[in-house]
Write a structure and sequence with these properties.
The protein is an all-alpha fold. The chain has one domain: Na+/H+ antiporter like fold. It contains 19 helices and no strands. Helix 4 runs parallel beside helix 12 and helix 9 crosses helix 10.
Length: 418
């Protein structure tokens, strides 16, 4: 049994690595392959073995959430976002809010969910996957402004999905009709999280400065994340938001200190960022395999599939309207409507958030399975959209080349006749 476990771990890491290379070359998202591996394992293993993995879900989900939030905050270039915020933020907010509202209304009026449950689903799957979007658009021929808009959207919506989803979960857990009290408690929880994270991050950067160049900086930083998450949760704050803010301050330390005109405190060094990249890859690989492994095959029925397809249609409708507003203001973007509309893959943030409601005592029937299917459907949509766009570009190049040859031949004939 021990050798089988270690063999599986080694094989999964290799599959994760080669599926990432496969994605870079074919545009087929690696997470689809990883989830397929998990599903295959789910069919191979016995029910009692899968039950052991299911019991680990709260811990695996919390760990993945902490790491994705820390990684997102650490690599969130605040200055770049501020510089390009205008057009990108307008498109991002429009697409996110419309997706949330469309999904909420469809789930309430067609499938009978209450508004908060529908809003939670909309928030969880409201953002695009930065890992897929950034890798894909870097390899296709689009205008630089399109790349900036889609890259910033994927970065901003990761944070938006997490913040809004956790806020809705907090409201659902409070279970109070009194909006004023609910919002007050919510504001208090988020305030505790942000203030704690800022204070701890400033303190930790001061400590890191003294240990700069020495070993174990990354490992100790991870230890601080675990401790901070636990303490913030213990005092009724939101540990996930605290981790994101902690990463955000560490990743953008130079900008903060320059703005505050403080010298002497530096941000995290390249070693910590390098280790975090490796850790994020490891956790991401195993999480998608784990997600496929614990997927409830019995929930894969007509109801779940129809809900997932309806939600995909709602997301696409919101996307089409958002792209229409963007191209109305900026006519140069009209040539890239296909890319802007179909570049909507959901990823790790949605997958991690799917398991949080049940961990917090909120039971919504087939919620993780619906999110699982939406991740697959949106990834397939993005892949098809990329292929269609690239095919269109190739056809235009052939037509332009043919047109150029015709012009050259005509000019030659005129010169001969002249």
């Amino acid at each position: 049994m021990i050798e089988t476990v270690f063999l599986s771990i080694g094989v999964i890491i290799f599959i994760g690595f080669f599926s990432m290379i496969f994605f870079e070359r074919t545009r087929i998202p690696d997470m689809l392959i990883l989830m397929l591996v998990g599903l295959t394992l789910g069919y191979i293993l016995e029910e009692n073995q899968i039950a052991i993995f299911e019991k680990m879900a709260p811990y695996v989900g919390a760990l993945a959430l902490m790491m994705i939030l820390f990684d997102g905050g650490l690599n969130f270039d605040l200055l770049k976002v501020v510089r390009e915020l205008g057009e990108a933020s307008m498109f991002t907010l429009t697409a996110f809010l419309m997706s949330c509202l469309f999904v909420m209304n469809i789930m309430h009026f067609i499938f009978g969910w209450n508004f908060l449950e529908g809003l939670l689903l909309g928030a969880v799957i409201g953002g695009t996957s930065s890992a897929i979007v950034i890798t894909t658009i870097s390899r296709i021929l689009v205008d630089e402004r399109v790349k900036i808009i889609l890259s910033l959207e994927s970065a901003i919506t990761d944070a938006l999905c997490i913040v809004v989803s956790l806020a809705v979960i907090e409201i659902m857990m409070l279970n109070e009709i009194n909006v004023r009290n609910s919002l007050g408690d919510l504001f208090g929880a988020f305030s505790i999280s942000v203030v704690s994270a800022v204070l701890i991050s400033v303190l930790w950067m001061g400590i890191l400065k003294k240990f700069r160049g020495k070993s174990f900086g990354y490992l100790l930083t991870v230890a601080v994340i675990f401790i901070m998450y636990s303490l913030v949760e213990f005092v009724k704050g939101n540990g996930a938001i605290a981790v994101f803010v902690f990463g955000l301050v560490l990743g953008n330390a130079r900008y903060f200190w320059k703005t505050l005109k403080l010298e002497g405190i530096l941000g995290v060094d390249a070693t910590i960022k390098s280790f975090q990249k490796e850790t994020a890859f490891f956790i991401r690989t195993f999480f998608f395999v784990y997600l496929g492994l614990i997927f409830n095959k019995n929930a894969l029925n007509y109801s779940t599939i129809s809900i997932s397809l309806a939600v995909l249609a709602a997301i696409l409708a919101a996307r089409i309207i958002s792209v229409g507003i963007l191209t109305l203001k900026n006519k140069s973007m009209r040539n890239y409507r296909i890319v802007l509309t179909t570049m909507l893959p959901r990823g790790l943030a949605a997958a991690v958030l799917a398991s949080i409601p049940l961990e917090r005592g909120i039971n919504i029937e087939s919620f993780p399975e619906i999110v699982f299917l939406i991740i697959i459907l949106t990834s397939i949509t993005a892949t098809i959209g990329t292929f269609v766009y690239e095919r269109k570009i190739r056809q235009e190049k052939v037509e332009n080349k043919s047109h150029d040859h015709q012009e050259i031949r005509l000019i030659g004939e005129l010169n001969k006749s002249g």
